[in-house]
Amino acid sequence: MGFIKEFKDFAMKGNLVDMAIAFVMGGAFGKVVTGFIDGMVMPIVGKITAGVDFKQLRYILEPAKFDAAGKETAAEISIKYGQFITIMIDFILVAFVMFLIVKAINKMKKKQEEAPVAPPAPTKEEILLTEIRDLLKK
Predict the structure, then answer these.
(1) From residue 12, how far is each of 2, 5, 18, 49 by CA, in Å?
(2) Residue 68 burial (C-beta neighbours within 10 Å; 0-12, 13-18, 19+)
């Protein structure tokens, strides 16, 4: 039973739970960015580049082979550089947004650190010593 308790303590630590939440949020954020890129950015880029669909850009090393009936016997072998370009745009946008988030968090932390901290109230001993000192002065 000690092993199970030890594992439970490990799994419930704040850092591990925070990290798990970050991974889930990161995966969801990745889908949002991919949807944004595919649905909004790449059509604009395609329009600018005369209708080129970047995901379809590839260098064909060996074309697909078909038999007499028209059935594919060997798949096309190609380097899909357009897909790579799209993924790089995804990465750059995710990195940029993460940079902005970290920058905003650091700015908030800096403001919290700069906020003046009120001096702690004097302890009972300090109050008593102050009273004794004042009495001795008289």
Answers:
(1) 15, 11, 10, 51
(2) exposed
Q: At what angle do helices 2-11 and 14-36 cross, to 10 degrees?
A: 50
Alpha-carbon distance of 42 to 35, in angstroms, equals: 10
78: helix, strand or coil: strand
Q: What are the pLDDT tens digits along the chain (138 aa)?
A: 688 888 777 767 767 777 788 888 888 887 887 788 788 887 887 788 777 777 788 899 998 898 888 888 888 899 999 888 888 887 888 788 778 888 888 888 887 777 677 778 888 888 888 888 888 887
Structure tokens at 61: 């090393």
| Domains of the chain (ranges, CATH numbers) | 2-137 (1.10.1200.120)
For residues 78 and 76, what is the distance between their CA atoms, to the nearest angstrom? 6
